[in-house]
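Below is a filled-in request sheet from our internal design queue. Each sheet records the structural input a requester submitted and the sequence that came back. We keep these sheets so that new team members can see what a complete request looks like end to end.

REQUESTER: design group, bay 2
PRIORITY: normal
MODE: inverse folding
CHAIN LENGTH: 313
BACKBONE (tokenized):
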């Protein structure tokens, strides 16, 4: 019989071998982790050092994809040789820079390659979507509005033919509001990349672009004054005069027109309740300032209407 004590040596040696093997495995595992960590760090550094141009290209690709999906939901109108162009459009005097040469007008005609028909109640773009284009209204009326955290909607503007919308999203390169049609509307799609490219060759287009952005800022300032210092009747009077002047600049009647927006929407824009707007319309009619039948409005006494809001100017 073998003495168990004689087994002690080989058993310990075997244990040492197992321990050595286990230690080697742990060392190999540690090396594997270190190698993985190094590769992961290199990958992070590579991603972090990606050029700004590459990031912009990726963003533009995503924006173009989202833009294409959005337009697929609307009625696209292809631009053909027989279609009205910027140089022959009736609204060109409002959209285009003043005093452009015939050669520059030909270049401008290449800027708009597609148009979109937005039916009443449809949305042209939504807040937060990447900005891939701005839109010039050919005919119709649009409202821009934002939705509050509590679900309430605040109207920020009513937009008429000849006006360009979407400029408020240039700061973050994403739309800052929703744009919804108040009636059947058609817009010219001006791709932002094409606009930038053509602007670099047309100084007059750059000036027009700056003028449009300046006008946007001025409108915001006027709205702040309207909401901050005017009484309810002054706000409605200023709104009617402003709408009258804008329609007149487009060749429409300055004293008789149809309101494309509801009284509730007017109230949202002016910061007034629906009941207040309805009461003010009735008061203006009783005072002989206007005649109103549903949404058809006739400004009877323009001087009197201007006098209502000029008190606070």
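RETURNED SEQUENCE:
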């Amino acid at each position: 019989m073998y003495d168990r004590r004689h087994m002690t040596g080989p058993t310990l040696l075997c244990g040492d071998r197992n321990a050595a093997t286990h230690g080697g495995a742990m060392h190999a595992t540690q090396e594997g982790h270190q190698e993985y960590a190094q590769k992961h760090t290199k990958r992070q550094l590579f991603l972090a050092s990606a050029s700004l141009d590459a990031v912009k290209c990726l963003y533009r690709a995503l924006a173009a994809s989202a833009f294409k999906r959005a337009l697929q939901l609307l009625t696209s109108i292809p631009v053909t040789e027989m279609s009205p162009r910027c140089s022959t459009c009736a609204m060109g005097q409002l959209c285009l820079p003043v005093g452009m040469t015939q050669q520059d007008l030909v270049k401008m005609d290449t800027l708009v390659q597609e148009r979109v028909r937005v039916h009443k109640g449809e949305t042209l773009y939504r807040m937060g979507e990447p900005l891939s284009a701005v839109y010039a209204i050919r005919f119709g009326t649009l409202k821009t509005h934002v939705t509050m955290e509590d679900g309430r909607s605040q109207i920020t503007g009513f937009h008429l033919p000849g006006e360009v919308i979407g400029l408020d999203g240039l700061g973050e390169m994403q739309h800052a509001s929703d744009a919804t049609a108040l009636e059947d509307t058609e817009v010219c799609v001006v791709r932002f990349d094409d606009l930038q490219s053509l602007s670099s060759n047309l100084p007059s287009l750059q000036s027009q672009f700056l003028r449009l952005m300046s006008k946007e800022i001025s409108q915001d300032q006027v709205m702040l004054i309207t909401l901050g210092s005017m009484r309810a009747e002054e706000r409605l009077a200023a709104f009617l005069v402003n709408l009258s002047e804008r329609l007149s600049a487009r060749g429409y009647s300055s004293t008789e027109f149809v309101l494309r927006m509801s009284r509730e929407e007017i109230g949202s824009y002016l910061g007034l309740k629906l009941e207040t707007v309805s009461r003010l319309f009735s008061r203006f009619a009783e005072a002989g300032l206007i005649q109103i039948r549903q949404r058809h409005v006739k400004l009877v006494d323009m001087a009197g209407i201007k006098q209502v809001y000029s008190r606070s100017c």
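SHEET NOTES:
- The chain has ten helices and twelve strands.
- The longest helix spans residues 8-48.
FILED BY: M.R.
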